[in-house]
Write a structure and sequence with these properties.
The protein has 351 residues and is of the alpha/beta class. It has two domains: 250 residues, Alpha-Beta Barrel (TIM Barrel); 70 residues. It contains 14 helices and eight strands. An eight-stranded parallel beta sheet has the order 1-8-7-6-5-4-3-2. Helix 5 runs parallel beside helix 6. The two termini are 32 Å apart.
Length: 351
């Protein structure tokens, strides 16, 4: 059983499609969102993230000139993710983001990078359940929209402690929780333990979104079956396979994405051909929203993330890395895909 049949009330009020994009530093900007939206089935609704936003900086930033807060005028369904642990900057950030049009606020308690740990942001908050609950409480008290939390499975592998932790977040007012079931020190290593998602989903009343190790459509189905979650969040695989949304939508009975005809790509060769179309579209979007130097850097970073799923992606990556203009990039893309390419189902997610 998948997706919509599992959605709990708070999610049903906002979405009707059971997969969403993950907030990823350097990736979940307007360019990637618009690329993935291209493959969202017609009449499907889901959440859309931003990159992580620092609550200490947000109050003084101009959203129109800050790349992390660039958005399309059509994006009316954003749930920006914030880092923070102090009430005043959190309150100011939430107010500013709500005025900007956010329909929810997500608190990051999963980022394991040193900069976040240094300031007691991200996964560092999981070291003190009461402290983390206070962060949720102060955010909820200052928000007119739902507040969610994205977290990892903890500092140590203690499922009973994870359960106590998330129950405190629920009591503090979290509307839903997204769990990436790896420990803080594992970062991208090891395997995400989807059974931990089922553990908290069955003990909490609020919805649970599962995250981690999704690469192909079957992974989404398997996560729903094993984790029993309400929704699935997908990260890097959506940079390579944004049409996962199309594939799932077809299975769930949704209409094709607007402007796309036929069937979602399915074979390795069909996916290779679609990657070319998606990449060219991405370059077009980035040219529209970002200044050239920044756009070119972001395009190259996007390709480094997505190219490992291409059979000869390292060759394309090397060609694009030397490009200094959009036209050069388009030329290299068209030249590379003039020879039919294949995508691999799985790659090493630690890259």
């Amino acid at each position: 059983m998948m997706g919509p049949l599992n959605l709990r009330p708070i999610l049903k009020n906002h979405v009707n499609f059971p997969v969403c994009l993950a907030p990823m530093v350097g990736l979940s900007h307007v360019g990637l969102r618009m690329l993935v939206r291209r493959y969202l089935p017609a009449n499907a609704k889901t959440f859309w993230p931003t990159e992580m936003l620092n609550s200490r900086r947000l109050p003084n930033e101009d959203f129109k000139t800050t790349p992390e807060t660039y958005r399309s005028d059509t994006e009316l369904d954003l749930v920006p993710q914030i880092l923070g642990n102090e009430e005043e900057p959190i309150a100011q950030s939430v107010q500013k983001l709500t005025d900007w049009g956010a329909i929810g606020i997500d608190i990051n308690m999963g980022c394991p990078v040193k900069k976040a740990l240094k300031h007691n942001y991200g996964v560092a908050l999981m070291g003190d359940a009461d402290y983390a609950a206070r962060v949720v409480d102060m955010t909820v008290r200052n928000s007119k929209v739902p507040v969610s939390v994205k977290l990892r499975a903890g500092i140590e592998d203690k499922p009973e402690e994870l359960l106590k932790f998330v129950k405190k977040l629920e009591s503090a007012g979290a509307s839903w929780i997204t769990l990436h079931p790896r420990l803080a020190h594992e970062k991208r290593r090891g395997t995400a333990d989807w059974k931990k998602i089922a553990l908290i989903r069955n003990e909490l009343k609020i919805p649970i979104i599962g995250n981690g190790d999704i690469q192909v459509l079957q992974d989404i189905e398997d996560m729903f079956n094993i984790a029993e979650c309400d929704m699935v969040m997908v990260g890097r695989a959506l940079t390579a396979r944004p049409w996962l949304l199309w594939q799932l939508g077809s299975k769930l009975g949704f209409e094709n994405p607007e402007g796309l005809a036929g069937s979602a790509p399915n074979t390795h060769e069909e996916e290779g051909a679609e990657f070319a179309k998606a990449f060219l579209y991405f370059v077009e979007i980035m040219e529209e929203y970002f200044v050239p130097d920044l756009a070119l850097r972001k395009i190259k970073f996007y390709l480094r993330t997505s190219s490992p799923w291409l059979e000869f992606g390292h060759i394309l990556n090397a060609k694009i890395s030397g490009c200094t203009t959009y036209d050069q990039m388009r030329g290299e893309i068209e030249h590379f895909f003039a020879i039919p390419q294949r995508m691999m189902a799985k790659t090493d997610l630690r890259i």
